[in-house]
Amino acid sequence: MSTRAGFVALIGEPNAGKSTLTNAMVGAKVSIVTHKVQTTRARIRGVAIEGESQIVFVDTPGLFRPRRRLDRAMVAAAWGGAADADIVVLLVEAHRGVTEGVERILEGLEQFAPNRPVALAINKIDRVKSEVLLGLTADLNARFPFTRTFMISAEKGHGIADLKAWLAASLPESPWLYPEDQIADLPMRMIAAEMTREKLTLRLHQELPYQLTVETENWEERKDGSARIDQVIYVARDGHKGIVLGHKGETIKAISQAARAELEEFLGRKVHLFLQVKVRPNWLEEAERYSEMGLEFKDGNGG
Questions:
Q1: Residue 74: which residues within 8 A CB-CB, separation 6 or more?
Q2: Other CB atoms within 10 Å distance of the CB of residue 71
Q3: What is the residue range of 147's domain?
Q4: In total, how many domains does the chain have?
Q5: Are residues 148 and 230 in the same domain?
Q6: Three-state SS letters, the chain
Q7: Looking at the DSSP assignment, which residues form a beta bridge with residue 112?
Q8: Is the domain of 126 the same as that of 225?
Q9: Which residues make beta-bridge pairs with 116?
Q10: Which of 107, 138, 170 is the last residue in one of the domains?
Q11: The last residue of a domain, from among 143, 170, 197
């Protein structure tokens, strides 16, 4: 029996459910899921196996109107992911319908994804009545020639199997692109940094939306099978450092414990996690921070 393999780009507005869908398809927590928008910065790929097919998900940053350099890099990464993929899946939230953002994405699809199958996945279907769903489906299909339309709930798992089966059958014939046991092509150091960043985002989402980044500086395998992981949390201002540390260091301690617990579960072994907070006023403008997140750093406003 011949094998199939290829790349599937999930695109949509921030919070449309791309990360949740990736995790549901892959069956493991690869992409960071938070209620905060714009948390996926890097093109994290999850690898799912369906029969003889290997589906590689390109989890693109949410598409929104870019304002800063980091925003521009994230939007460029999202469209780059769509342009490189074999199949594109547009996620639209059922209860929000055709927003201004969705309209912009439909325009972009004509430009960036010509001559490739584009499926429509209407997500969070449990939030609206069936007649609303039918109307939305008709409206979206009138605006763009989608290859297929799927009704799903990424969170509850509805419709995921049908979408996955269709993707598996629609990918090109090809040898598998990754070893069978590999679920993400991000280096573990980066996945570890993302896990810590997720805990920071959940804990501090009101105070410090996007002004921080996490890097894994050192990863040491120990003789007893455990791992020592040293990470640095970079913040843009002195005042932010105090917020991350918290009163008597309580905040950073709680974040460290939560991140460590998740890392141990993910790696299946004991982890010693050490976090430091450093102020780096210009990290949003530093090229190397971008390459570490898998993004293009472009000079000037044209980016």
A1: 38, 41, 61, 62, 66, 295
A2: 17
A3: 4-170
A4: 2
A5: no
A6: CCCEEEEEEEEECCCCCHHHHHHHHHCCCCCCCCCCCCCCCCCEEEEEEECCEEEEEEECCCCCCCCCHHHHHHHHHHHHHHHHCCEEEEEEECCCCCCHHHHHHHHHHHHHCCCCCEEEEEECHHHCCHHHHHHHHHHHHHHCCCCEEEECECCCCECHHHHHHHHHHHCCECCCCCCCCCCECCCHHHHHHHHHHHHHHHHHCCCCCCCEEEEEEEEEECCCCCEEEEEEEEECCHHHHHHHHCHHHHHHHHHHHHHHHHHHHHHCCCEEEEEEEEECCCHHHCHHHHHHCCCCCCCCCCC
A7: none
A8: no
A9: none
A10: 170
A11: 170
Rounded CA-CA distance 90/110 in Å is 13
**CATH number of the domain bearing residue 31:** 3.40.50.300
User: Which residues on adjacent β-strands are paired with residue 212?
Assistant: 235
The pLDDT tens digits along the chain (303 residues) read 689 999 898 888 888 888 788 888 877 655 554 444 444 444 556 788 888 998 888 766 666 666 667 666 666 766 666 667 899 999 999 999 999 889 888 888 877 767 789 999 999 999 999 999 999 999 999 999 999 999 999 989 899 999 999 999 999 999 988 776 665 556 677 888 888 988 998 888 776 656 788 888 888 888 898 889 999 999 888 888 998 999 999 999 999 999 999 888 877 789 999 999 999 887 777 776 666 666 666 654 444
Query: Are both 51 and 196 inside the same structural domain?
Result: no
Is the same domain home to 284 and 228? yes
